Fold:
Amino acid sequence: MSDSVAARPSLLDPAFHAGDPYPHYREWRIKTPIFRDEEAGFWVVTRYEDVLTLSSDPETFCSKRGVLPADLSREVSEDISILYMDPPRHRKHRKLVQPSLSRRRVASFEPWIRKLTRELLDKIEGQTVAEFVEALAVPLPIYVIARLLGVPGSDYDNFRKWSDAAIEAATELTEENAALAAELHIYLDGVIAERRKQPGDDLISLLVQSEVDGTALSDHDLIMFCFTLLVAGNETTRNLLSAGTWALAKHPDARRALAADPSGIETAVEEMLRWESPIVAFLRTATRDVVVREQMVREGEALLLVYAAANRDVEVFGDDAEAFVPTRSPNPHLAFGVGEHFCLGANTARLEAKIFFEELLARYPDFELAGDAVRLQSTLARGLLELPIGLSSS
Structure:
């Protein structure tokens, strides 16, 4: 295939990302690894080396001027979310919660995450076909992040609704999803007020008692933190579980190998993240005139860093970069970002996925696709809305 400029698909079109964008990514990496999309109003960066370099230089490529394509048409600031913060402010906020989400700390979550996973699998026991996304991929990460934040699981339906609205707003802001975001803010404001009076051992209580440069976090900062953790902690893990299950159903030999030897699941999870990156791309903005791969990028111009393209770069992952290889190691994918904005919840997501696939494959080693998957229409996330799975325990 060949992409002429006139025929080049729009990166602002959710349908492009919900289809099969990978042949286009491959073409771009080879012929135009960085190009200017005048209609979208940003540069597009697809090579692994470039995405890694730009992500690691927040002084030259900042986040505070916007991280989503929609930000180019609205006013943004560092106050929106930690995702929009640059050093040194970002570093100061990040270190407030980083110890609570460290690998060692997260390892202590394993018993209750495993118990929760088994309970969810119990609910589909006896079914011939299960709708995987609704039954398993949606509830598990929501229940986990709710417990970490210290809010009741009984509010699951609301968390799901609010999180979905936030992802939708990342592509297109509407009155409806803006109203749902306002609902979440009101809810979090009430929880924060309760924790100020009676703190516990959850993340919200930790944040309520935290300070940056000797000053307590404002209610706005607290809501921003909680909003980001809820949405990011839920959506990315949901997409990882869905995409991973779809990948194993498409590759029965790999599925059978992992069912026979679960010790390979952690490595397979990294390949799931690489092969179907849960987050497609984020923006950065040049803070000065700078040359990127022989292209002059002017101060104030935005660049879209396409992680989903970088994660299939043959220069890093070899000639089989387009293939799903669950034994791939090393696997330096960029699915969790890099540098200052490496995902805070990466350890939690990895643990959830490891436990989930251990339990799923132990109970249903021969699961298979039982219909067509329906993909999420989004310019931010690559996920599944529906995934019918045929269940068989032998």
